[in-house]
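User: structure tokens for this one?
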Amino acid sequence: MAKTSDQEVTVAGLGESGVLKRILPRLRGASMLLGPGDDAAIIGAPGGRFVFTIDTLVQDQDFRLNWRNGYQSSGYEVGWKSAAQNLSDINAMGGVATAAVISLTLPPETPVAWVEGIADGFSAAVRELGADQCALAGGDLSSGSELSITAALTGSIPGPALLRSGARPGDIVAVSGVLGAAAAGLALLESEHDFTALDPSCATLVERQLRPRPPLSAGPRAAAAGATAAMDISDGLARDAGRLAEASGASIDFESTSLRAIIGSMEREGIDLGAAAELMEQEPLKWVLSGGEDHGLLATFPPDAALPSGFMRVGRVGRESGDQDVRQRISLDDAPYPSGSAGDSSPGFDHFSGQEEAS
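Assistant:
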């Protein structure tokens, strides 16, 4: 009888216990008080407090198995992205991730090798992004009609916690990390441009969409430097800045020259929006302002503060003027945003419409 290869084994064929035996060893990390094996984990809380976050990735909503341009997602990439977006949320609070629990919903025909890829990708992101203190505390498996992965992470806060509500008029607005690359990558994935024919710079942007690299040390550095507010950039710089401004009772004006300087600094680091912008007939500044999923860090600092390493100024906090919703609090070069100057009419991504939300 021919031996069944790992690529042909499905989760239904292996069973829940068998799948767990395959993936748990791939997710071991730093020690905790009590890890997987009991009904619940026991996690220490240094200093008596911890932060907590949870995110879900759902097939055909947050990722696709088969993209329009011919690319096929791997379990490794989905696992990586799940880790990255949760780690970024902990970082945005000024925290350091300490533990994770993961819940997987899997159609019975899912190859076990694909699920092992999720575990490998999650572990690789934790390791390569610098979250060495984060360990798997447990999780759950369930069967369903579509793939989904939910990860919940805890973290400790070594210094003051960063909130969205502390920005004050006159504060400097700064960002750390990449802007617009994941949005450009998504545009390429959803296009008719064959993935195998993309030039290296465009392929790099696709990778940034599938495997984002949030600047995980930026949160604690910002807190130590006296940041007044911060948040993860997940749904677009303009949209998320609007949320921060609303929480702070303020407004934010972005400077196009500073944003274009960030585009230039990214080019020097090998992340070039230009080729993709030309191919897609798009203005790079739109991706920078409205594109999410790079998971950079947005933060505000007192006017006289020295920005910590890795941060670049992009604007300034202003006063609230009247009754403003989240989108009316943002301007670009003192003009209300969205505006034609950025070639954009949409401030960010809305999870329930599944598209960028129009003004």
